[in-house]
Amino acid sequence: MKHFTQPGLLAACLSLTLFQPSWAQVFGVELVQNGGAEAGPFSPDGYAPVTSIPGWSFFTGVNVVRYQTGGEFPVVGSPGPVQRGQQFFSGGNNSPFSTASQVIDLTAGSEEIDSGQVVFDFRAWLGGAGSQDDTAQVAAVFNDGDGQSIGTSTLAGPFAGERGNQTGLLLRTAAGTVPVGTRSITLALTMIRTNGNYNNGYADNISMVLTAPLPPCDPDVNCDGSANGVDVEIQELAVGGELTDYCQPDADFNRDGAVNGTDVEAVELVVGGAPCP
Ligand SMILES: [Ca+2]
Ligand SMILES: [Ca+2]
Ligand SMILES: [Ca+2]
Ligand SMILES: [Ca+2]
């Protein structure tokens, strides 16, 4: 009988299972809070400033406007995202330079990031009004553990010519490798006014998603230090919902999206020397 319920091992298994939700919170999920401007209040006329923008720890000048406001603002039928919701970010009135920022904590993904194999997909819809060259941009600053910048990716919105002098928003994207050592991202939305009193830089659906390579499978599903027939039994129990001695982050061993008998077969094959599924 293997002593796979020793307190030390149990603690190790527990810490593994506790670690997994953090991993899941960093990779393959939307990291920007309220990137679509849908949470929180809006300005009824687009001019009176909102007093809060949920998810953005700091903002000055930036306003939240509805697509139904009309006038110089993009409307439901203007160029822009299909899934645009009801609200977008605007540069606001009497503000030549408007900005909003939020910090995304990535410490839960440190190990994967430091492998140099984590990639980012950064995108936003950015635009302006008619023939005005007021613009919006979003920068993602990658910070190390001391909060020092070690890299930047910037999405620059279109000037009037690129919009065909039409009011609306265009998609901007950037992708690349997250710099080794990154522990947080500071996201900074900026609108720059060149024309009139109102800052007509507009933005919606700001998105940042990181993807990490999947960790290799581990057939030692009870974490007792050896991969053998016991692990096949433990996998079978896990498929049945009994996870007491199961230490892997996910009972879907073969990663096909379902927890069933094929996972037991997969453990048996890998225990027998086959490569990970
Ligand atoms: Ca929106
Ligand atoms: Ca303007
Ligand atoms: Ca084992
Ligand atoms: Ca499966």
Give the key terms.
single chain; alpha+beta; 4 helices; 10 strands; 30% strand; disordered N terminus; five-stranded antiparallel beta sheet; Jelly Rolls; Type 1 dockerin domain; binds calcium ion; 2 domains; 277 residues
Give the structure's gist in a few sentences.
This protein has 277 residues and is of the alpha+beta class.
Structure summary, number of beta strands: 10
Look at the helices and sheets and give the structural class.
alpha+beta
CATH topology of the largest domain: Jelly Rolls
Helix content: 10-25%
Annotated CATH homologous superfamily of the largest domain: Galactose-binding domain-like
Number of distinct helices: 4
Bound ligands, named by name, code or SMILES:
calcium ion
H/E series, N to C?
HEEEEHEEEEEEHH
Lateral strand order in the biggest sheet: 1-4-9-6-7
Number of domains: 2
**How much of the sequence is in beta strands?**
25-35%
Fold and architecture overview:
With 277 residues, the protein is α+β, with helices and mostly antiparallel strands. The protein has 2 domains: 7-24 and 214-271, Type 1 dockerin domain; 30-211, Jelly Rolls. It is 17% helix and 30% strand. The chain has 4 helices and 10 strands. The chain is elongated, with a radius of gyration of 24 Å. The structure holds calcium ion (4 copies). One calcium ion binds at residues 132, 134, 193, 195-196, 198-200.
